[in-house]
Write a structure and sequence with these properties.
The protein is α/β, with parallel strands linked by helices. It folds into two domains: 210 residues, 3-Layer(bba) Sandwich (FAD/NAD(P)-binding domain); 123 residues, FAD/NAD(P)-binding domain (3-Layer(bba) Sandwich). The chain is 23% helix and 25% strand. Strands 1, 2, 5, 6, 7, 8, 9 and 20 form an eight-stranded mixed sheet that branches. Strands 11-18-12-13-14 form a five-stranded parallel sheet. A three-stranded antiparallel sheet has the order 15-16-17. Strand 8 and strand 9 form a beta hairpin. It is elongated, with a radius of gyration of 21 Å. 47% of the residues are buried.
């Protein structure tokens, strides 16, 4: 398709987690007619609904006093955004509420690449759809780093006691008064392990080296906590259990010996990777890959007309509620910027 023939949108939103759908709700209610690239359900990175599609029960999002399953919550976000006129890009083209009635499990497109060198920006989907956009909201999130074990992924997706977010899941009844394991050795791992001690009978910190990578003050916090036990020079090589985790198999990095450790939950704290590859370095990011906000109170980035929301720009909180709040800010910032440009 010739670029001059591509449709021009007021605002395109990339990503469909809490940040993306909240941005869409606000943009749609502001009559901006937003277009969303939700991501691809079969993709390894950006998936429709974001990381909450891998979460079971969510108890800390306001408005759900009895808790809600992560996929169910994202489905309601989707339905609310579509109700107000949001459109989505599927392999069949642009679809509105009636066409996209299948919800989050349709073959939606992800963004393959963007050209931010001139406005309107040029956007190309991985299914071939192309458009231009006066404003772009990047809400692609950050994927948790996993060990890559088959049973780890299976139990994480089925609610079987494997998680990448202690703050999200650690207070669930299934983990209370159990012996739990945290994999990692940095500040985040210490924070996760310390948080879990509020609910667990014991927390094992499993680290591949004999010294934590965490800052001294954080390392001391873990080493001096009577409910945290360090498991040095060890890596997890398997997760055992059918419907629920029963144990983990760990290997000694020095002598190669393996042993099984009974645990009632496994939490991965080995970092997150922001999903920004499609930007090809056109937007300023920090040394960890998170997009840099020009103003910490807003969503503006190094490129005028490009706004960031959610975990793609937030390495600190990474919560659904904070992502939604950032999505709100991004939509309002985009609306005001478009008005200043005399576009919408």
């Amino acid at each position: 398709m010739n670029q001059s023939d591509t449709p021009v949108e007021n605002v395109v939103i990339v990503g469909s987690g809490p940040a993306g759908w909240t941005a869409a709700i606000y943009a749609a209610r502001a009559a901006l007619n937003p277009l969303v690239f939700p991501g691809r359900a079969t993709g390894k990175d950006l998936m429709p609904g974001g990381q909450l599609m891998l979460t079971t029960e969510v108890e800390n999002y306001p408005g759900f006093p009895d808790g809600v399953m992560g996929p169910d919550m994202m489905q309601t976000f989707f339905q609310q955004a579509m109700r107000f006129g949001t459109r989505v890009v599927s392999d069949d083209g642009v679809q509105g509420q009636d066409d996209a009635s299948g919800g989050l499990y349709m073959p939606y497109q992800n963004v393959k690449k963007v050209d931010l060198s001139q406005r309107p920006f040029h956007i190309v989907g991985d299914g071939g759809y192309e458009c231009r956009a006066h404003a772009l909201v990047v809400a692609t999130g950050a994927k948790a780093n996993w060990l890559g074990l088959d049973n780890e992924q299976r139990l994480a997706q089925s609610g079987g006691g494997v998680s990448a977010c202690a703050v999200c899941d650690g207070a669930l009844p299934m983990f209370r008064d159990k012996e739990l394991a945290v994999v990692g050795g940095g500040d985040s791992a210490v924070e996760e392990a310390t948080y879990l001690t509020k609910f667990a009978s014991k927390v094992y910190m499993i680290h591949r080296r004999d010294k934590l990578r965490a800052s001294k003050i954080m390392a001391d916090r873990a080493l001096n906590n009577p409910k945290i036990e360090m498991v040095w020079n060890s890596v997890v090589v398997d997760v055992l259990g059918d419907d629920m985790i029963e144990a983990i198999r760990i290997r000694d990095t020095q002598d190669g010996n393996e042993r099984d450790m009974a645990v009632g939950g496994l939490f991965l704290a080995i970092g997150h990777t922001p999903i920004t590859g499609f930007l090809n370095g056109q937007v300023e990011a920090d040394d960890k890959g998170y997009l840099v906000l020009k103003d910490t109170y807003r969503s503006t980035t190094s490129v005028e007309g490009v706004f960031a929301a959610g975990d793609v720009a937030d390495s600190t909180y990474r919560q659904a509620v904070t992502a939604a709040g950032m999505g709100c800010k991004a939509a309002i910032d985009a609306e005001r910027w478009l008005a200043e440009q005399g576009i919408a």
